[in-house]
Amino acid sequence: MPAELAVMAGLPKRIQKETERLQAEPAPGISAVPHDNNPRHFNVIINGPNESPYSGGIFKLELFLPEDYPMGPPKVRFLTRIYHPNIDRLGRICLDILKDKWSPALQIRTVLLSIQALLSAPNPDDPLNNEAADRWKKDEQQAIQTAKTWTATYARE
């Protein structure tokens, strides 16, 4: 048995199936690859959505499935710096399905698509980065320009 299959064999069937689906049918603009040595830890890349200030950006994230997954949500954070009202300077993400709105019916794929959607629709009324949220509310065009500048600076390969 190849090493990666042996490591996968120790995982719950649900995680094995989700991982296989992510590899076989990746969501558009999203890549999630499990680490060789820890299949609960994923390297994620989300392409900035078109028509957003993050367009053209390549954002690296890490996703970890805790022992209580799927009863508890995955842990996800941005590794690439990003200017966004719902993402703080440590890369933590303010997204309801990662907290109190989590449901075991959700999957890794759903979480990543929701994060990608958050890039298209920042919500300054539920901020994690107060400075960005204030800028978004007071001068949205300036906030969008800052987000574009940060994308060009930090999210290009």
Automatic annotation (TrEMBL):
Q: Which GO terms describe its molecular function?
A: ATP binding; ubiquitin conjugating enzyme activity
Q: Which residues form the signal peptide?
A: none
Which keywords fit this entry according to its UniProt record?
ATP-binding, Nucleotide-binding, Transferase, Ubl conjugation pathway
Active site annotation, chain numbering: C94 (glycyl thioester intermediate)
Enzyme category, top tier: transferase
Which CDD domains does the entry mention?
A: UBCc_UBE2N (cd23813)
Domain UBC core intervals: 10-156
SMART domains to which the protein is assigned, alphabetical = UBCc
Q: What is its EC number?
A: 2.3.2.23
InterPro entries this protein is in? Ub_conjugating_enzyme (IPR050113), UBC (IPR000608), UBQ-conjugating_AS (IPR023313), UBQ-conjugating_enzyme/RWD (IPR016135)
Key word ATP-binding present: yes
Q: Which Pfam families match?
A: UQ_con (PF00179)
What the record says about family reads:
Belongs to the ubiquitin-conjugating enzyme family.
Write down the PANTHER family for this protein, in alphabetical order: UBIQUITIN-CONJUGATING ENZYME E2
Its name, as the record gives it, is: E2 ubiquitin-conjugating enzyme
